[in-house]
């Protein structure tokens, strides 16, 4: 009697690829000192190869006192360079009645801290025997350089703002009348007291601010 054939066993289907256990992978850092994590999608260096973390920049502390002192030093240096000894300048006084008047003077001494000794050209004091030019200490804020000289005499029109040499100083005013044959002088409204005065052309100049 012939032996019975056993039915063939069906081969066990191979497990899908996504179910197969992942092979253990050894990956080392470029320095070869420390092993890296095994999963490829999370590979990160663990031996200080990461880019440095930028720290927020700390704002520098502002020293207001130091800044003020530096600015004062810069201003003092500029004053000394601008107003040198023997320089021709114009000065004004702090008294309210004279704030609009600029007197011609010469710097004779720089005392520092923005202060200068000047000698006035048109103000004098009684020296006993003779009158001496008046010398006074003035702050730099009350000193200015004179305007540049012009080669040609300027012509002034109505409402022009001008400087007028009056009572030994330059004062500000506005032209309210121009010369005519019958009146060869300029009429000027003085800003200091709103008085209308007449002046020759030689007593006027373009306004210097």
Under CATH at level 1, the class of the domain at 68-144 stands as Mainly Beta
Radius of gyration: 46 Å
Low-confidence runs of at least 5 consecutive residues: 15-48
Terminal residue distance:
139 Å
- Oligomer status: single chain
Structural class based on helices, strands and sheet pairing: mainly beta
Summed over residues and divided by their number, the pLDDT gives a mean of 75
| Secondary-structure element series | HEEEEEEEEEE
CATH architecture of the domain at 68-144: Roll
Q: Helical stretch count?
A: 1
What is the helix fraction of residues, given as a range? under 10%
Residues in β-strands, percent: 25-35%
- Biggest sheet character: 5 strands, antiparallel
Strand order within the widest sheet? 4-3-2-1-5
Write up what this structure looks like.
With 209 residues, the chain is mainly beta. Among the domains are: 68-144, Roll (SH3 type barrels), CATH 2.30.30; 161-206, SH3 type barrels (Roll), CATH 2.30.30. 9% of the residues lie in helices and 31% in strands. The chain contains one helix and ten strands; from the N terminus they run αββββββββββ. It has one helix spanning 64-82, and strands spanning 88-91, 103-112, 115-126, 131-139, 143-144, 161-166, 169-177, 186-190, 196-199, 204-206. The chain has a five-stranded antiparallel β-sheet, with no helix packed on it. A five-stranded antiparallel β-sheet has the order 9-8-7-6-10, with no helix packed on it. The longest helix is centred in the middle third of the chain and has 19 residues, at 64-82. The protein is globular and about 55 Å long. The relative contact order is 0.10.
